[in-house]
Amino acid sequence: MKRIHFQYIGLAMFSIFIIGNIISRIFFPNSFVNEMTEDYFPTEINGKIYDFMPIKGGSLYAMLHTQHNDDGIDIRNSSVVKKIKKGMYLKKLPNTNQCYVIKDDSIMYFNCFDRSFLTKEDSIKIGQVKEWNSAITNHWVLKK
User: Fold this and answer.
1) pTM attached to this predicted model
2) Please, which pLDDT band fits residue 3 given cuts at 50, 70 and 90?
3) Average pLDDT over the chain, rounded to an integer
4) CB distance 101 to 71 below 8 Å
5) Three-state secondary structure along the chain?
6) For position 109, what pLDDT does the model report?
């Protein structure tokens, strides 16, 4: 009986991964773009953050107590991930990329999905989505 070398198993697994990735891009070329335009940007959500889970790559999944039930949202903006804490009120405006969080007498506006996460081609496919003016984003200001 011959011994199977682990390097060959690793190479085979890597090859399967690459081939699977290529096949998925051929059969589902715009699945990510479709998800963003059909599901993510139209969503409106607001409520108090009761928990969150960091996601590899600088994202955050925030779990909220909303008016009707518990819900959650991905925040893909590494500039604000460390500034968001449990107990804050979060709102994502519908049909936009605009989010904000409120902490005591302060508010922070930010774009829920930072376009740096997208490839140039995906950004072009998604097109224009309403975002906050960059002068007021990613820092705390007094609530008016």
Assistant:
1) 0.73
2) low
3) 85
4) no
5) CCCCCHHHHHHHHHHHHHHHHHHHHHHCCCHHHHHHHHHHCCCCEEEEEEEEEEECCCEEEEEEECCCCEEEEEEECCCCHHHCCCCCEEEECCCCCEEEEEECCEEEEEECECHHHCCHHHHHHHCCCCCCCHHHECCEEECC
6) 97
